[in-house]
Amino acid sequence: MRSATGQSATSASNDEIRELQLNRLRAGLTAVLATNAFWRERLHGVSGWDDFERLPLTAKSELLADQAAHSPFGTNLTHPVDRYVRLHQTSGSSGDQPLRWLDTEESWDWWLRIWAEHVYPAAGVTAADRVFFAFSFGPFIGFWSAFGGAQRLGALCISGGAMTSEQRVRNMLDMGATVLMSTPTYALRLADVAEQIGVNLSAAAVRKTIHAGEPGASIPATRAAIEAAYSAQAFDHTGMTELGPTGFSCSARDGVHLIESEFIFEVMPDGELVATNLGRWGMPLIRYRTGDRVVVSPEPCSCGSPFMKVVGGIQGRVDDMFTVRGVNLYPSQVEDIVRRYPQVVEFVLEHRRERRMDEVALLLETASSDFSTERLEADLRQALGVRLECRIVERGTLPRSELKSRRLVRIVGS
Ligand SMILES: [Zn+2]
Q1: Residue 309: which residues within 8 A CB-CB, separation 6 or more?
Q2: Distance, CA 301 to ligand 1 centroid (Å)?
Q3: What DSSP state is assigned to residue 205?
Q4: Helix, strand or coil for residue 19?
Q5: 408 Cβ contact partners less than 8 Å away, ≥ 6 residues apart
Q6: How far is the CA of 284 from the centre of ligand 1 (A)?
Q7: How far, in Å, is the centroid of ligand 1 from the Cα of 240?
Q8: Measured in angstroms, how far is the CA atom of residue 179 from the centroid of ligand 1?
């Protein structure tokens, strides 16, 4: 189902997409409901959109509870376990237990095809490119699917696993990499390291960067900082371990198109994105609450894509929202101001709740010790309408990750 505001396509292609979605859903669900205990308990068959809209929503907490009760994989299995060929798991970065996810040969093929047909081409990446993956290649699915998808495209794939940041910078340059894959924060971290060791990244061959894990590449100031550091174009990509690769940013680079030929997307009244995948039937998700907040563009995109576009990418996680003196804010709004200051190397929002008062401080690591926070505080106040106290902390003390960075740290006081 498309939301009422999601009319980004012409009505003809819109109808075509809806028909394709319904056909794929009906065919897939028939097989799932024959054998998959998790969905048999929750669903009935679907013959039309009315049926679909009556299906229950599914939350991550239900999946975690199911895997805890039926360890290790839970009951969302359409086939016996020996039919599956890959196991991945979420990072557990939000404090939850990691969620385990299995893929069959067919569903893995579906992942790679989406990368090769949608995400890479939208960024202009081709078989002639050399793609450098600045990731550790742990159990998280994003590294492996992006790597396999680039191989499917015919590009030369270069793993940056088990390297220090300095080794990654040198390797990327020595191998003549033309595309960098990393989180937005880590791309800036590599740029910072390059500067420290006297390497000029903007003279390197990198011409495109693709980012996921955080909304950064859709945040104007962050995208501008990455593009300046690499003399490259930066693109956003969205996806989730349990769902699949859901979106990509196009040549307009002002938002993320949601891949409606492979998913059904719905936007709830509060802005939460709900998704149903249409090609991962070994362990599918139907009407899954992503926890991500989005705003759908009412205008067709200049790139001509028939897929709906979410403005500025994912605005934030529903559970990342914080309140300062009655104003609801997302870390991405703060990031868009902070990243206009190239002297800021790292930052974290510290949310303290004391005596029922919300206090939020912005902790900053800066490149030079004489950085004054005055102008930044004024910019934040003007853009957000509230005062945020800025505090400079010692270089190297804030947490760093090549996976998604936690921008909001909550501390509960007395
Ligand atoms: Zn577009």
Answers
A1: 8, 250, 255, 256, 257, 258, 296, 297, 301
A2: 5
A3: S
A4: helix
A5: 320, 322, 331, 348, 349, 351
A6: 27
A7: 21
A8: 20
254 C-alpha to ligand 1 centroid (Å): 8
252 CA → ligand 1 middle, Å: 6
Ligand 1 center–CA 255 separation, angstroms:
8
C-alpha 385 to ligand 1 mean position (Å): 31
118 is written with which tokens? 């949608």
Ligand 1 centre to CA of 244 (Å) is: 20
pTM attached to this predicted model: 0.89
Distance 292 CA to ligand 1 centre (A): 20
Ligand 1 mean position, distance from CA 318 (Å): 25
The Cα 63–Cα 59 span in angstroms is 7
Helix (H, G, I), strand (E, B) or coil at 89: strand
> Distance from the CA of 379 to the center of ligand 1, in angstroms?
30
Query: Residue 156 Cα, ligand 1 centroid: separation in angstroms?
Result: 26
What separation in Å is there between the alpha carbon of 72 and the centre of ligand 1?
A: 40
- C-alpha 315: how far from chain center: 10
d(CA 146, CA 18): 27
Nearest to 136 by CA among 109, 112, 113, 168: 168
Q: Residue 72, preceding bond cis, omega within 30 degrees?
A: yes
Tokens representing 129?
A: 């490119």
What gap in Å lies between CA 271 and CA 296, rounded to an integer? 9
Sequential pLDDT tens for the chain (414 residues): 444 433 444 455 889 999 999 999 999 999 999 999 999 999 988 999 999 999 999 999 999 999 999 999 999 999 999 999 999 999 776 667 899 999 999 999 999 999 999 999 999 999 999 999 999 999 999 999 999 999 999 999 999 999 999 999 999 999 999 999 999 999 999 999 999 999 999 999 999 999 998 888 999 999 999 999 999 999 999 999 999 999 999 999 989 999 999 999 999 998 999 999 999 999 999 999 999 999 999 999 999 999 999 998 888 887 788 888 888 888 888 999 999 999 998 899 998 887 777 788 999 999 888 899 999 999 999 999 888 999 999 988 888 777 777 787 877 654
